[in-house]
Amino acid sequence: MLAEEIDMSLLATFVEQLQSADAVTIDSGPLLTSWVTEIQPDLHDLESDDSFARFTWVDEEGLEYDAEISPRAFEAANTPQMLEVGRWKLVDTQGEETEVCLFKLIPLHRAPPS
Q1: Rounded distance, CA 96 to CA 99, Å?
Q2: Which parts of the chain fold into alpha helices (H)?
Q3: How many folded domains does the chain comprise?
């Protein structure tokens, strides 16, 4: 079960935004359009040390990167912040401050209705 010091409202807001996102950037990295999430239907069932979102990517030089987010990112001691809708400053599972930006993608033009 989650520790009491985790801000459940911030966690729920992040999860809701993550589930509706089409793309993500981590620390101004490349635009990611797929990632792994393991989100329990009841957020209270999450274990505080278990990551529920994992982002991986390879840069132009072939170096591999990853970031994992666990409920601990939402502990008051880690000062989670929603800087604006879809833009978060969190501490990842390695203890590194991480900026996660969530995006909705829309087409530049839409086909005319049939």
Answers
A1: 10
A2: 8-20
A3: 1
First to last CA, the chain: 51
Chain segment 26-62, per-residue pLDDT in tens: 998 899 999 988 876 566 666 667 788 999 988 888 8
CA angle 106, 99, 67 (to 5 degrees): 95
Beta-bridged to residue 102, according to DSSP, are 24
H or E stretch covering 57 = strand 53-58
Dist. CA 94–CA 26, nearest whole Å: 14
Structure tokens of 81? 């912040």
- Domain-embedded: residue 113: no
**What is the reported pTM?**
0.81
Residue 94 domain boundaries: 8-103
